[in-house]
Write a structure and sequence with these properties.
mainly alpha, 0% strand
Amino acid sequence: MHQKFSLQLLLITIGIALLLAGLFFDLGMVAAQTPMPTPDRLAQPTLPADPSQADRGAQVYWLSCLPCHGDRGQGLTEEFKQTYPAEDRNCWNSGCHGKRPYQNGFTLPMNIPAIIGAGTLQKFPNALVLRSYIFAAMPYWRPGSLTEEESWQVTAFVLRENNLWNVQEDLTASNADLVLVSTPQAFATPQPVPSAVAPLELSPLLFVVGFVVLALLLTYLRKRRF
């Protein structure tokens, strides 16, 4: 009787284990079959509860800079063009943004540089110069359309993405010239040109050998005299 009860208990335990294993297996299959949503690279960035200057600059960038400089600041690359609808992937045709743009339009440059990443922004020595350029010349399609505040915001955003600025502090005219952007050029210290003829060095061993030979020669000459 005791053995029969133990056998039944064992079978019940095995049945529960198999049931739980099957349940977890089904859940795992469902999770594996459910595709992860693809983030929209062109979606407007959302602001956190307490947005910083750079956070607000991310929205300025999205509205005025992203179409040309890319969603990651990579420039107008072939890969980035593929995020746009097929009819908008080549804007250099006549009548669009080519040599003869549409009325009130503009000619789009063929090469638009990256502004985020290693080696970018090298023509700007500091944040003040960068902000002045953005305020006066950007966006390309409507230069000078950014407000002063927007130009500071987008400058702070670009610097943050390049790890050049503390996002907890606002970038202003009083501190922007202290924020270095480009890497100072390193100049090598001039080194003296080595002489073609090596300086003569007197070897101690050679001096001793020469002295011994000279002494033997003098001794030999003295013996010859006498």
